[in-house]
Known about the structure:
- The protein contains ten helices and eleven strands.
- It is α+β, with helices and mostly antiparallel strands.
- Helix 8 (201-216) packs parallel to helix 9.
Amino acid sequence: MVAEHLRIFHQGLEVALVPMSTKGDKMLAAPLATVGGKGLFLKELEHALLEDRADIAVHSVKDVTVSLPEGLCMPVITSREDPRDALISNHYASLDALPNGARIGTSSLRRRCQLKALRPGLEVIDLRGGVHTRLKKLDAGEFDALLLACAGLKRLGMEPRIAESLDPDRFVPAIGQGAIGIELREGDDAVAPLVVPLDHRESSLCVRAERAMNEALGGGCQVPIAGHAKLEGNTLTLVGVVASIDGSEVIRASDSAPDSEAETLGRRVAEMLNGRGARRILEAVYADV
């Protein structure tokens, strides 16, 4: 998608894909939180940038760590796809329709915590692997339902598999979910002007607010922090959630600010969450994962 957009903006530009396999793609036997979190999906790509084997790296923003390696930056967020979580089930039309004891698969601590808070009677089972692998297990009857990102399913042409798109105010998405970020070397004056036209202002503002909140909380990709920002007119609104692993405690905060204060808004919501006990929960989570 990024390559196609680059060719559209810059007629005659040659764009070559450099496919890579990361540790996050290979280490499927253990829950993601116990083997280093979603940052495992970045390192090989970032090494390729730093070693000049690639000019840009394209990431799902929800996998991008709060801080980037020295010498790298992520100045571009492309137009965001649907940020919501999706319930996929062959027999049940919604999360509320799942009976107690139903088996639901997810690899996300964030989703697990919110599931346990909303539906404590469900059996939440860790499930890793690509979308096709997970759907195959669902279709084989190993699970009653799955939780995946709407964005990934839509990009793969699998939107018909979505039984319910979960309300982002009730079931808050991951930081940056649905957004694609472009990472490059700082000071690369040849590449930066080529990718800047792909930046989408609304998506960038929302992601910047969410990531500022995550950074202020000291959050990583493997802890139960959720955040969702939306822009209405010139006003940016951010909802943040921090939850205990067992779902027994869910702390929420929300606030609004002018769109020129995205990072300030993110930090302010983080302060509100910490004031309500988020720091205590996160310290306990870090001790366990």
